[in-house]
Amino acid sequence: MSHIEDTISALATPLGFGAISIIRVSGEKSIAMVDAIFTGKVKLEKAKSHTVHYGNIFDSDEMIDDVLISVFKAPNSYTGEDSVEISTHGNPLIANKILELLTRKNVRLAEPGEFTKRAFLNNRMDLSQAEAVADVISSHTEASLRGARNQLNGLLSRKVDELRMLLLNISSFVELELDFAEEDVKFIEQGELIKRIDHVQSEIDSLLKTYSFGKIMRDGVNVALVGIPNVGKSSLLNYILKESRAIVSEIPGTTRDIIREEVSIDGILFKLYDTAGIRFSEDLIELEGIYRSRDAVKNADLVLYINDVEQEFDQTLYQEILILNDRKNILTVLNKIDKGYKGAVSYDISLSALTGEGIIELLNRMKDHALGNSSFSEKTAIVSNLRHYQCLSRAKENLITARDSAMNNMSGEFVSVDLRNTINCLGEIIGEVTSEDILNNIFTKFCIGK
């Protein structure tokens, strides 16, 4: 990332043809730079903040386009700086000409996430909220969007900051005692100190427990459809998707590669992987598909082990799946029950991918598996980001060490250091404590223009 003093610009709308394109410009000289290429009824530098102005963009005597200019003056803008948004006709040629013209005026092209990084550096949002911006943009379901919005609105930030304040309060008593060590003054009794530490640890534990649920809401559930050839894996995929996505044939081994599709069930994103039938084969292409099937099983959050009424239950294959994944992540599914079933093996779900019988029960079981025993609401602070989870885990470790030191009547210096380390770990979540490397790693994953 480059210096915040630069004036930057980028296309804020998707590249391609459309009704309009929007170019975002931000920095101390942004209004003056755009004013230099804009002709309208008023000078933009004299315009009030949050106003829109019609006029033309010129390159010398050549008119590039008639545009609408939105002016946002510091600190009341997205970045906290003077900012301008140029709305042009949605032709990439026009947008590129304007961007090129701005670069000739010493406006630098923005790097990925640089506008949001500036919003963070200018205290328009904390780091957790800044990360939520990317999640809002990339959300695939209503549930993931609500979770991202909650984080963007500061639900997690407020909870983390509350815990930091509690720890700062505890730490202040411990450090005061160090200042008055010679007078042997007690500002907080051991029992009260441990009680307060236990309370904060309990709150951190509660946040850590939300991660599994939060990760599902954010990233979805990976579901592998697995079984021997011709048991109806592709037919089941097609029925769930309500379209003919996978080729269905009586010929075994039709599916050679993994087919990945997504479906939203009551707001939860399920990523379905239709895999090649696992069996012994000398066909090199089919073998590669089988290898990939095993990888899909290994990485799946949920495995649908599918058989049909005409096949014996393959215990060897089932045991292999158990080795690759956990039993609690596997649902056994019997397909083609429209043909009748007289076998002795009991399955978790019985259905027909032809008639649809039992499909609703399968979808409900998939949803129940994803949610588990979660009782979180939209008002609950939920951890969905791995970085936040790791920071909380480190905070817990330091807090446990601080508690052990207090229990063993060790010097307050030991307790104080571990409490400060805990506070710093929590501070990393919201950006109170951070490094340039962490910031770069976060914001370079954003799209350009945001």
What does this entry look like structurally?
There is one protein chain. The protein is an alpha/beta fold and 450 residues long. It has three domains: 117 residues, Gyrase A, domain 2; 132 residues, Up-down Bundle (Four Helix Bundle (Hemerythrin (Met), subunit A)); 152 residues, Rossmann fold. It has 15 helices and 13 strands. A hairpin with a 6-residue loop joins strand 1 and strand 2. It is flat and about 85 Å long. The chain starts with 7 loop residues before the first strand and ends in a 7-residue tail after the last helix.
Summarize the SSE layout with pairings:
Layout: E1 8-11, E2 18-26, H1 30-35, E3 38-40, E4 51-59, E5 62-72, E6 83-90, H2 92-104, E7 108-109, H3 114-121, H4 127-138, H5 142-152, H6 155-179, H7 190-209, H8 211-219, E8 221-226, H9 233-241, E9 259-265, E10 268-274, H10 284-299, E11 302-308, H11 315-324, E12 330-335, E13 349-350, H12 359-371, H13 386-407, H14 412-430, H15 436-443
Parallel strand pairs: 1-7, 8-10, 8-11, 11-12, 12-13
Antiparallel strand pairs: 1-2, 2-6, 3-4, 4-5, 5-6, 9-10
Helix pairs in contact: 4-5, 5-8, 6-7, 6-14, 7-13, 13-14
Name some characteristics of this structure:
alpha/beta; single chain; 450 residues; Four Helix Bundle (Hemerythrin (Met), subunit A); Gyrase A, domain 2; seven-stranded mixed beta sheet; 45% helix; six-stranded mixed beta sheet
Roughly how many Å apart are the termini? 14 Å
Nearest-integer average pLDDT: 86
Radius of gyration: 29 Å
Uncertain runs with pLDDT below 50, 5 residues or more?
245-249, 251-256
State the name of the first-level CATH class of the largest domain: Alpha Beta
Give the full name of the CATH homologous superfamily of the largest domain. P-loop containing nucleotide triphosphate hydrolases
Helix content: 40-55%
Number of E-type strands: 13
